[in-house]
Write a structure and sequence with these properties.
Length: 178
């Protein structure tokens, strides 16, 4: 289990801009928001990523980097970026499912074509949203077993404003005896 204030697993994925995202090399002043999404087959992911795309500048104003990551290949990832008309949201692809599991993401099996007629991959990860501090420690994490009921990016931006203004620490760090 990932614990706040502890180092997260490493994360290195190729990005659509031809670079490589390596979490340990991120230099954002306040941290990085990583949105793990299910893939092109998921219509809810497209809606969610469109909201993320709309908030990228707000995160940047707060010194926070952003990336959306899935186990889809480059072609499917490009289709998703095009679908949501991404202009400044980084997209990582080819997420290794072992790494996804290290991040605490749930793994699902294909059920065939989705409601929008796109085939699900044989295996893929379910959604997760993480805020990682510059020292690569976990600040915030949320994982889902389904594509429904995800945290709102507008609320995360507001929470960051409060956390930054009040030096609010990551919570949920206790792992001792109860």
């Amino acid at each position: 289990m990932l614990l706040p204030r502890k180092k997260t697993p490493d994360l290195t994925v190729p990005t659509l801009d031809g670079a490589t995202f390596n979490l340990s090399d991120e230099a954002s002043k306040t941290g990085t928001v990583i949105c793990f999404y299910r893939g092109l087959h998921c219509p809810l992911c497209a809606t969610y990523l469109a909201e993320f795309q709309a908030r990228v500048d707000e995160f940047a104003e707060r010194g926070v980097g952003t990336i959306a990551v899935s186990s889809d290949d480059a072609d499917r990832t490009r289709q998703m970026a095009d679908k949501i008309e991404a202009t400044n949201l980084r997209f990582g692809y080819d997420l290794n499912l072992g790494v996804a599991r290290d991040w605490g993401l749930y793994i699902s099996t294909s059920r065939g074509k989705t409601s929008i007629g796109i085939e699900e991959p044989a295996l893929f990860s379910e959604p997760g949203l993480f805020m990682v501090s510059p020292d690569q420690s976990l600040y915030y994490g949320s994982v889902q077993t389904m594509p429904f009921v995800r945290p709102h990016f507008s609320e995360l931006v507001q929470a960051l404003d409060f956390a930054i203004a009040n030096s609010y620490p990551a919570r949920g760090e206790y792992a001792g005896a109860i």
